[in-house]
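Entry 14. Structure prediction run on the chain below.
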Amino acid sequence: MFDQINGLPVHALVLHAAVVLVPMLALVSVIYAFVPRWRPYVGWAAALLAVAAPTTAWVAVKSGEHLYDRLVGQGMQGPVLGILANHMNFGRRTLWFTVALGVATLVMLFFTVARTGRSLPRPAELVLAVVIVVLAAISAYYVFRTGDSGAHAVWGAA
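Output returned:
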């Protein structure tokens, strides 16, 4: 499932979804957290991205692990394996911070959707908003580092 589709590595096909959706989740979750008047307009996007971004990050990590195993099985060796290991570590960090951001966003949504009658005390909402900003910044940082290290692994330092 995570290895190939029509002879192409799944990783090459799905990684771009994570590269797009993780930063979108970061942006939309911060907007949702700090611009209450926009919540009715971006809430649906925040909810979808809170699920889709971690899912695509997970598929990218799993498919990357399968690609790595395939390359090693085909005899790849040398310094490139260290570069790929570094890339994989960044990818795993991206995954975990994106999962945390998705969960924090869903918690914020759960307590701020007006029709539910649930609400957080204002200080708790502010703390959660700050947590979302921190997780959004870290997720965006790691998706950049992961992509940059992957590009260097594939294309070299050029």
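Residues 39-73 form the longest helix (35 residues).
Filed with the rest of this week's runs.
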